[in-house]
């Protein structure tokens, strides 16, 4: 039996366990989706794992068998490139990936993924003698549902990055300050 790093109960009453994502499970955690999109996301998750980003998956435990994987997420440390000191000194974390399987959307799994990322980041900062100050995410401006979810989770729309990653898509900086 594998060890759960954290368990969170969603607003729909689902008990969700969070585990570090091993590379061999990357394709499985994404579940059923368009093959072209899945191929891109698999490569993205493998890149994130290789860069030492914190990547985790969420599953609903089942009695006597493997749990049902319902989502995947990641976060990473951020700082100003010319800042002196450690990245932890900046107190900044980016939630860089949140994906909920379609069969479990609108049940609080995305919020649980976000809470896990933030709690994990807070624990990391604390273990380094620092404090998480701010969390942010970059959300495509065309992703109305994603932006609405971040707003429900307590984020605010901080800035619009015109043509940030491509000339065809603007990104919205969603953020909140940790108390």
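-> sequence recovered:
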């Amino acid at each position: 039996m594998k060890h759960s790093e954290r368990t969170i109960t969603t607003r729909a009453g689902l008990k969700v366990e969070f585990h570090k994502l091993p590379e061999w499970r990357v394709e499985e955690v994404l579940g059923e989706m368009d093959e072209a999109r899945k191929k891109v996301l698999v490569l993205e998750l493998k890149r994130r794992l290789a860069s030492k980003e914190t990547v985790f998956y969420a599953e609903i435990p089942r009695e006597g068998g493997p749990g049902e994987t319902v989502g995947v997420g990641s976060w990473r440390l951020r700082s100003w490139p010319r800042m002196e000191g450690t990245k932890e000194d900046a107190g900044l974390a980016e939630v860089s990936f949140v994906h909920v399987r379609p069969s479990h959307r609108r049940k609080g799994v995305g919020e649980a993924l976000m809470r896990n990322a933030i709690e994990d980041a807070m624990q990391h900062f604390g273990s380094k003698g620092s404090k998480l100050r701010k969390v942010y995410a970059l959300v495509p401006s065309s992703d109305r549902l994603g932006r609405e979810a971040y707003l429900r989770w307590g984020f605010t729309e901080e800035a619009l990055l015109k043509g940030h990653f491509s000339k065809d898509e603007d990104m919205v900086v969603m953020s909140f300050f940790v108390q």
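The longest helix spans residues 109-127.
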